[in-house]
Write a structure and sequence with these properties.
The chain has helices at about 10-30, 35, 40-45, 55-70, 85-100, 115-130, 180, 185-200, 220-230, 265-280, 355-375, 385-400, 415-420, 420-430, 440-450, 460-480, and strands spanning about 75-80, 105-110, 135-140, 145, 150-155, 170-175, 210-215, 235, 300, 310-315, 330-340, 345-350, 380-385, 410, 435. The strands form two sheets. It has an eight-stranded mixed beta sheet, covered by helices on one side. A seven-stranded mixed beta sheet has the order 9-15-12-11-10-13-14, sandwiched between helices. It contains 16 helices and 15 strands. The relative contact order is 0.09. The protein has about 475 residues and is an alpha/beta fold. Helix 4 packs parallel to helix 5 and helix 5 packs across helix 6. The protein folds into two domains: about 20-280, Rossmann fold, CATH 3.40.50; about 295-480, Nucleotidyltransferase, domain 5.
Length: about 475
């Protein structure tokens, strides 16, 4: 009986040939032990040939990433413009490099939602496979996959639970993904709490953390990191167009990546995004949409509180009986100092929404702190609340504060707030208003940039009140000392 040869379809043959080519390609890319131990930049030039990885911003990032690999850097924040290769470089390629170098490495990759994080995870797995890293068949989902050595990648979106994660490397890539989310205070709070309380709180002493983000808002997670945790992070801040004291030594306005993102591309983005979007996403300098009275750059930042000069803290009280949902009313106390050179420093701004009882307790606590920190340099003024009940509450608060050793006066201001703010605006415009360090600085500048048409004006009003009393006090002090 004649044996028949099975017929193979053209489609099946093509699939088999494609599989064979893929295996041959993987065999060519399979790394040697020495390749896995190369610095990241040299590894990248072979593993990812789609781009030139010797551009200066890539080289600067590679140097820091090599320090993370060596364990000499633990937390690095990369402030890199959009469309400059940061995700492919810092998240996908570096994760695959670490897995090739040590397949037992446990990596947590995070982004603004699960879908985005899982996309990163798939790209990392694809590159790791091409580089010869053996993947476990028992655990190979996009959200959570392992190497044969027990390492691997877990992908989570912002807000996802990470209680059981035990990572050697945490990659946070754009935890906020839209302008809408960035403009929401509730969303910013949620993401920041997730980063600090869920991710960072569970890091081991050896865990490396890479935070890569293009800016959206002054109070976005990157802004809070820089303002509140600057001493815990190494920060690489590279705007798309060079500014003064550029970390790479560029000339002012020189593009960061002239080969692919040169002056023409940057100008197109400036026209597409507008000055607000361009400053945020390309320069890393988010600015609120400015009104007509205060400009963001008018306020001069200083590193310490003036050691000399009289002080006034002025309180604009919110008289609501309880904190109301979505209420725009805040209690604000602005502390200003009149310096010997006649410039004015805003030393501190306290701002909160509390019931009247809790409000007065918090004000009393701040009084004790001011008395301890500044002694008799500081005098307090309080706006009298409206109505008979308001006046009685104000007088009771004054008695409590006097028991704290604080000199307190009251007034009921008259005139429009915009007119009371004009002296501060004039001083700020010529650079005579200094802002001392504190988390309050950007929220204050943001309110000023929308004044008088913004939702809130409490901080500007408190600062205006303090400045008016400070000028009077400074004048009286000078007259007394002249006799």
């Amino acid at each position: 009986m004649t044996q028949r040869t099975p017929t193979v379809s053209a489609k099946t043959r093509a699939a088999a040939e494609q599989l064979l080519r893929a295996r041959q390609h993987a065999a060519v890319l399979k790394p040697s032990h020495s390749a896995a131990q190369q610095p990241f930049g040299k590894w990248l030039a072979v593993a990812q040939k789609g781009l030139r990885w010797d551009a200066r911003h890539f080289v600067a990032m590679q140097q820091l990433l090599d320090d993370v690999t060596a364990g000499t850097q633990r937390r690095v924040y990369f402030q890199i413009p959009i469309r400059h290769g940061k995700t492919l470089h810092n998240t996908i390629s570096y994760a695959a490099y670490r897995l090739e170098r040590n397949p037992a490495t446990r990596i947590l990759v995070c982004s603004y939602n699960d879908r985005r994080a899982q996309k990163f995870s798939r790209e990392i797995r694809k590159l790791a496979l091409a580089r010869g890293v053996k993947i476990s068949a028992d655990r190979d989902a996009a959200t959570d996959w392992e190497t044969a050595a027990g390492g691997g990648v877990q992908a989570v979106g912002s807000g996802s639970g990470v209680a059981s994660v035990n990572a050697d490397l945490v990659l946070i890539d754009d935890p906020i993904g839209s302008r809408h989310d960035a403009e929401s205070p509730a969303k910013r709070d949620q993401v920041w709490d997730w980063i600090t309380n869920d991710l960072l709180a569970r890091c081991e002493p050896h865990t490396g953390v890479l935070f890569t983000m293009s800016r959206w808002h002054t109070d976005d997670p990157a802004g809070r990191l820089v303002d509140q945790q600057r001493d815990r992070w190494t920060i690489l801040d590279l705007p798309a167009e060079a500014e003064e004291n550029d970390p790479l030594g560029r000339e002012i306005d020189e593009p960061l990546w002239p080969q692919l993102r040169g002056a023409t591309w940057l100008q197109e983005k400036r026209e597409e995004l507008g000055s607000y979007g361009f400053a945020s996403l390309l320069q890393g300098r988010p600015r609120p949409r400015e009104g007509g009275m205060f400009k963001w750059d008018w306020w001069r930042l200083v590193d310490e509180v003036p050691r000399m000069g009289p002080m006034v803290r002025y309180w604009d009280l919110a008289g609501t009986e309880s904190k109301r949902k979505n209420s725009p009313d805040y209690t604000v106390g602005a502390l200003l100092c009149r310096m010997p050179d006649k410039r004015t420093a805003i030393v501190d701004i306290a701002r909160f929404q509390l019931s009247i009882g809790a409000r007065d307790t918090e004000i009393e606590r701040i009084a004790l702190r001011d008395r301890q920190d500044y002694g008799f340099r500081v005098r307090w003024w309080i706006e009298t609340e409206v109505g008979m009940a308001g006046r009685e509450r104000t007088q009771e608060l004054v008695r409590r504060l006097q028991n704290c050793g604080i000199s307190v006066s009251t007034e009921h201001p008259t005139g429009k707030k915009i007119h009371r703010a004009e002296p501060i605006a004039a001083k700020a415009e010529v650079g005579n208003i200094l802002l001392c360090p504190g988390a309050w600085r950007d929220p204050f500048r943001a309110e000023g940039a929308t004044f008088p048409n913004g939702k809130n004006d409490d901080q500007i009003d408190a600062v205006s009140g303090a400045d008016s009393k400070l000028v009077t006090r400074s004048t009286l002090t000078t007259q007394i000392h002249s006799y």
